[in-house]
């Protein structure tokens, strides 16, 4: 009888541990996703027309950014 009670307690502890681990994983992946979104939203402004574009898509000339090849010239 004592052994069964011990097994039940062990199972409850294990379950709590798994839930806690799952919660930590969800929390860290959500934080990681947010950080990733922030890097995507790194916007720059075209020095010619003032339109906002992602830095990855912007054309860089010196320390200024442009939305297209035409505005770069
Ligand atoms: Zn432009």
What does this 3D model show about the protein?
The chain is built from two helices and four strands; from the N terminus they run αββββα. The radius of gyration is 26 Å and the shape is rod-shaped. It has two domains: 1-41; 42-73. Helices cover 59% and strands 16% of the residues. A hairpin with a 2-residue loop joins strand 3 (59-61) and strand 4. The protein has helices spanning 2-40, 69-72, and strands at 43-45, 52-54, 59-61, 64-66. It has a two-stranded antiparallel ribbon with strand order 1-2. It has a two-stranded antiparallel sheet with strand order 3-4. The relative contact order is 0.10. The longest helix has 39 residues, at 2-40. With 73 residues, the protein is of the alpha+beta class. It binds zinc ion. Zinc ion (ZN) is lined by residues 46, 48-49, 51, 66-68, 71.
Question: What is this structure, in a nutshell?
Answer:
The chain is built from 2 helices and 4 strands. It has 73 residues and is α+β, with helices and mostly antiparallel strands.
Please supply descriptive tags for the structure shown above:
2 domains, two-stranded antiparallel sheet, 73 residues, two-stranded antiparallel ribbon, rod-shaped, binds zinc ion, alpha+beta, 2 helices
Tally of helical runs: 2
Q: Mean pLDDT, rounded to whole units?
A: 88
| Uncertain ranges | none
- State the order of secondary-structure elements, H for helix, E for strand: HEEEEH
Q: Order of strands across the widest beta sheet?
A: 1-2
Anisotropy-based shape: rod-shaped
The biggest sheet amounts to: 2 strands, antiparallel
Q: Which percent range fits the helix content? A: 55-70%
User: Assembly state here?
Assistant: single chain
* SS strand fraction: 15-25%
Taking Cα atoms only, what radius of gyration do you get, to the nearest Å?
26 Å
Strand element count: 4
């Amino acid at each position: 009888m004592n052994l069964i009670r011990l097994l039940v307690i062990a199972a409850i502890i294990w379950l709590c541990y798994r839930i806690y681990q799952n919660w930590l994983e969800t929390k860290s992946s959500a934080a990681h996703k947010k950080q990733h979104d922030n890097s995507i939203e790194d916007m720059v402004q075209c020095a010619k027309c003032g339109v906002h574009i992602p830095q990855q898509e912007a054309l860089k000339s010196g320390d200024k950014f442009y939305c297209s090849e035409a505005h770069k010239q």
